[in-house]
Amino acid sequence: MAQAEENVWNARMVEASSEAAGAPSRDTAGGSRSIAFDRVSIIFGGTLLVVDDVSLHVAAGEFVSIVGPSGCGKTTLLNLAAGLLPSDVAKGGVTVGGKPPVRGNRDIAYMLARDALSPWRTALGNAELGTEIRGLPARERRDRARRLLETVGLKGFEDAYPKALSQGMRQRVALARTFGLDSPILLMDEPFGALDAQTKMQLEDVLLDLWQRYRRTVVFITHDLSEAVSMSDRVVVMTRRPGRVIADMAIPLGRPRSVRALQKQPAYHRLYAEVWAKLEEGLNA
Fold first, then answer.
1. Residue 201 falls inside a structural domain
2. Are the CB atoms for 164 and 173 separated by under 8 Å?
3. How far is C-alpha 79 from the chain's CA centre?
4. Exposed, middle or buried, 19 (CB in 10 Å: 0-12/13-18/19+)?
5. Can you give the pTM of this predicted structure?
6. Mutual orientation of helices 167-180 and 138-151 as an angle, nearest 10°?
7. Which is it for the CA torsion 149, 151, 154, 157, positive or negative?
8. Of 124, 96, 98, whose CA–CA distance to 110 is shortest?
């Protein structure tokens, strides 16, 4: 997808969230913040089985990563939860916050693999874009964006345009924009996949810091097993297409965590090897 097209797609998705009258609101008890797939199958064109009989429950405040071969339906599951797929392509039960998925659900923020920043907006302007579309008062959204830019390490770059920022800095802006929406559920589709190893690790720690601070529910798609193991409460492993869940593995590493510090811990490497073995099993399933 071209950058301009992705910008438009992203803006429309955020805009839809402000238009959805009657979309599920946040449940103060926290019960509505979970996602549940119950024996879900997804078929495109009436013949292409992409996801086959997947059951997966994500509790409020959990950080769950999904890994699997390309084309196994990982992103398709996120799109289904976000209400972006036609209802007739899916069989089985899907609920978000105890209700069927709906496009424009304000309880969901969706972060893409690319930053999708608007080139004509500064870092601050991009960080507050979602809250601007959702109608937050100007001073409140601006103050929130400033705080989040400082949290992700971009204090002093508020007035910089995307062309003056590195790719890692652009992704930091995208993180600030995503958390600025204040949605309890974050769907994240390989947000760090295009970054070099060092920058990726830095941003993983930034994301963990934000998650540990705000305790959002996160469903995180990645091809990087190290990323999945180091950040998650659970790692779900899918087979090749048609995607099925072959393993749902708890990651019993302590919190708070540092991704960089984990690289020296034997327990982390043992878990990595276990997830890798399941992924290989899924490739051959």
1. yes
2. no
3. 11
4. exposed
5. 0.85
6. 130
7. positive
8. 96
14 is a domain residue: yes
- Written as six digits, the tokens of 92 are 């089985």
- CATH code: domain of residue 57: 3.40.50.300
Residue 123 falls inside a structural domain: no
- Tokens linked to 248: 């749902």
The helix (run of H) or strand (run of E) holding residue 149 is helix 138-151
Sequence-ordered list of residues with C-beta below 8 angstroms from that of 108, at least 6 positions apart, any chain: 17, 81, 82, 96, 183, 185, 186, 187
> Hey, is 9 helix, strand or coil?
helix
- Identify the bridge partners of residue 187 per DSSP, sorted by sequence position: 110, 219
Element (H, E) at 279: helix 266-283
Cα–Cα distance between 100 and 123 in angstroms, integer? 35
Q: In the numeric block, which tokens belong to residue 65?
A: 């990563």
Tens of pLDDT, residues 72-115:
999 999 999 999 998 899 999 999 988 899 988 899 999 988 88
Question: Does a structural domain hold residue 177?
Answer: no
Single-letter code of the amino acid located at 55: S
Domain boundaries, position 236: 3-24+33-118+188-283
Nearest-angstrom CA–CA distance, 107 and 33 = 8
